[in-house]
Specification:
alpha+beta
Length: 292
């Protein structure tokens, strides 16, 4: 499909919650919510999920009277996984929740060496203005960025491009950035990171968004070994070009980003629908200008 058709489908089509994706690596989620009623944590993450390995925790950064963090077990792209998440999302929507400072985090397993880890950071930094807007969860603002800040300062600190493991260990220990690296328990000492944690999405109770985050971040990680580095703007990464507003619509860049990540048009459409969000009028104006 051409870009006009992709955008028109993203604007006009009803895109259902999917029974299954094409995600071929394990993943995990951290779902935050500021509850008003303490008993809701047991209702939302019930005994059925607890027996499956879901953990109810407390994260004081979430705010609210009763800050809740739900940590999932290792999940796989299976019908049961998406059914469980959909049911939990439905229960969340029945409860009064404050998402002002809440996050939704996605952990994806990767098989990278240090160079690929660096390319991921570089690619992410180049398209931050797209990824951050996509990650607003339908809101007209980003939550406070104290724990999901731009990678710009990371590049200021490590502009010598020393690709040793210490660099990525530092990023894994510093939970202030939009992405973080992690290590599985069985990781040998000195090995590169094998989990990427995407920390940017605003907290939300919509399983459709959760699913779309998993799909997009998974395909982001799989794109890195095949990346054409000509797409990466090194000067932007080192802060020499003026930043683009993370809440504005940049459809040309979003279309480039989607083409890099996805082979299937349907995945591009799902991504674009969430990226456009409430900016439908601006997206329609973009289409009209192309047709002139």
């Amino acid at each position: 499909m051409n870009k006009v058709d992709l955008i028109k489908c993203a604007i006009n089509d009803e895109l259902p919650y999917r029974k299954i994706l094409n995600v071929y690596e394990p993943f995990g989620l951290e779902i935050e919510a500021g509850l008003y009623t303490p008993s809701d944590k047991i209702y939302i993450c019930n005994e059925y999920l607890e027996k499956k390995g879901y953990v109810r925790g407390v994260d004081r950064t979430v705010g609210g009277n009763f800050p809740l963090e739900i940590r999932t077990p290792v999940l796989f792209d299976e019908v049961d996984t998406w059914n469980d998440l959909f049911a939990m999302s439905k229960r969340m929507k029945e409860c009064p929740i404050d998402f002002t400072n809440s996050a939704f985090q996605v952990n994806i397993d990767v098989d990278y060496d240090n160079v690929l880890c660096y390319y991921l950071v570089l690619f992410f930094r180049t398209f931050e203005h797209i990824i951050f807007k996509f990650s607003t969860s339908g809101c007209d603002r980003l939550r406070l960025l104290g724990y999901s800040a731009s990678l710009q300062n990371f590049f200021f600190l490590f502009n010598d491009r020393n690709l040793n493991n210490e660099l990525f260990f530092w990023l894994s220990e510093n939970h202030r950035y939009a992405i973080s690296f992690k290590f599985r328990k069985d990781t040998p000492v000195g090995a590169p990171p094998n989990i990427v944690e995407f920390r940017i999405p605003n907290g939300c109770d919509d399983a459709w968004l959760w699913q779309n985050y998993v799909n997009t971040f998974y395909y982001l990680t799989t794109a890195i070994p095949k990346i054409d580095l000509n797409y990466i703007d090194y000067s932007l990464c080192y802060g020499e070009i003026k930043e683009k507003n993370y809440l504005n619509l940049h459809l040309e860049d979003a279309l480039v980003f989607a083409d890099i990540l996805f082979k299937e048009d349907i995945d591009k459409i799902y991504f674009l629908k969430q990226y456009i969000g409430k900016d439908i009028d601006k997206a329609n104006e973009y289409v009209r200008k192309i047709r002139l």
